[in-house]
Write the C-alpha cells for this entry.
Amino acid sequence: MSEHQDIAGVYYVSPPPVTRSLNDPTVTLADPKTWEILWGDYRSETGELIDVAKAVSVPAIWQAVSLISGDIAKLPFELYRRRPEISDDARELARDEPLSRLVRVAPNESTTAIKFWRRVMVQVLLWGNAYVWIEREVVNESQGLIVGSGQPIGLYSLLPDRTWSEMINGTPYIVTEAMSDGNVSLKAIPVADCLHLEWINYGDKDACQLIHAARNSIALNLAQERFAAKFFKHGGRVGGILELPTGMPKPARDVVEQGFRASYEGTDNPFKTVILRDNAKFHEAQRSPTESQLVEANEQQVRQIARWFNLLPSKLGLSDSVSYNSKSEDNQAYLDSTLAIWLAQIAAECNAKLLSEEQQSSLFFEHNVGALLRMNQLQRYQAYQIAIQNRFLSPNEVRAAENRMPYDGGDVYENPATSSPLAAPAAESPQAQQQPQTAGKPSTGLLRVLYTLTANARHRAENPRSFVEFVDGNLTWHRKQSNDLVGNDQIVEQVHQRLKKIAATVTAEQLYGEVDAAMGRMEKEFCA
C-alpha cells in the first residue's frame, strides 16, 4: 500500500511528488506577485488589498453571487437515456441509474444536491475556479487499487484557494492541499477524477479570478461605502480648515482648536451650535454626499458589478432600458446571457468524467430549464391547450407538470376538438361544415372556438393598447377558426360586439375585470 496516498480517506495511485518552497531561488519575495499568489489578495489602485471576504461585503456582489448560484442549484439536473429505437432525438429520464441520484439528490453522505451545486457555483463565481473530486468504487486487481476503474460513488468540492492545475512530468494533474495523518500535504489528483469549472481564462492562472480582474471596481464600492459611513458617523458634517488669527499664542490656539473639535466632531454634536471667537474662521474642504453625487455613483457601481457577472441591472434592483412583456421573456434573456454557459460547463464536465465511454453512447446529463421559464397561470394553460390539441402532450403529462394526480384515460394523445386518439382528424363533408349550430348541447368545435376566444380576450385585456388592437382587428383569426370548425362565425360576432361595448365604456383600470366577467357569462350561457 506504500504506492498509494490518502486524500479524504480514499486511496488512489500516487503521482510524482509535488513540492513548493519559498526557498526556491527563482522566487523573489520582493516581487508583489509572489505575495498575491501566496495570500490570494490583490492590491487595487486605491491601495487597498482586495480578497473574497471584502468582495462579498459589497451588496451588489453578494446579490449577484446569491442569485446566480441559487438559480443554478435549484434547476433540476437530470440524467437522460437515449432511445434511438424510437427516434434520433427520443429520450427518457434515467433515474434508475445510481449516477442520477448522485447529481440530483445527494452527491455525498453529508451534502444535499442543492447545497453542493450552490457551493460549487459560489466558488467559481468568486475564485474563478471550482474543483470537485470524484470518489470512485474501489476495484481490487492483482497490483492493488486502480484509479478510474470504479463507478463514481461520491462528489466532494475542494477548496478553490488551495487547489490548482499543474503539469507533472508532462501529465496534467489537479493539485490540492489535503490533511493526512494530521499533517497538511499536497496531493495530485488525475484530471479524469476531478470536475473543473472555470471563468474566462486565456492561459494565465490568475486571469479568470474575478477578485483580481474586478479589484478596482470592488475597491471603489468599498471606498464609497466608507465615505458614507464616516460622513454619518460625524453627524453629517463635512471636514474643513479652521483658520485662526495671525499672532495668536499657541496656548490660545490649542484652546480654540480643542473647543471647536469638542463641539463640531462626533456623533452626539450635530445639533450643537459652534461659536467661533477671536476672528477664527471655518472653511469647508470636503464635498457633501450630494455634491459628490454619491447616490448616482453607487448606482453606477452596481451597474459595473452587473457587467462583471453578465447580468442585467434589473436583476440587481436597478431600472434598465431593456424591458420585457412577460416574466418568462425576462427569464429567457437571463438564461441565455448569464446561466447558459455555466449549465453547459457543468453538463459537459459530468458527461466527460462521470460517464464511461460506453455509457456516453446511451446516457447524458442535462439541466431542465423549464422551471426557470415557467409562465403565469393563463399563459401555461394556453400552452397546455395547444400542446394537447397538437398531441404533443397528454392530459396526464399536463397534470404531472401541475403536480396533480393522473386520471384513467389521460395518457391518450388526442385532440379534444375531434376526439380522435393518435390519428389525424377525419375531414368533415362539405354539407356538415356548412350546417349552423343547432339548439341543444354545443358541439366540441363550438366550445373550442369559444374558449380559445375568451382566453385570448382575457389575455389581451391585461394591456389596454393590445386589447384595442385586438378588437379593432375584427377578431379575424377567430372568425376563420369558427368558419372552419362550425361553419359560421356567429359566436365570434357575439363576443366581438360585447368587447366593443366594453372598450367604449370602461377605463383602463376596469378593463380586465369587465372582460373577465363578460367572458365568464358567455361561457356559462353556451355551456349551460
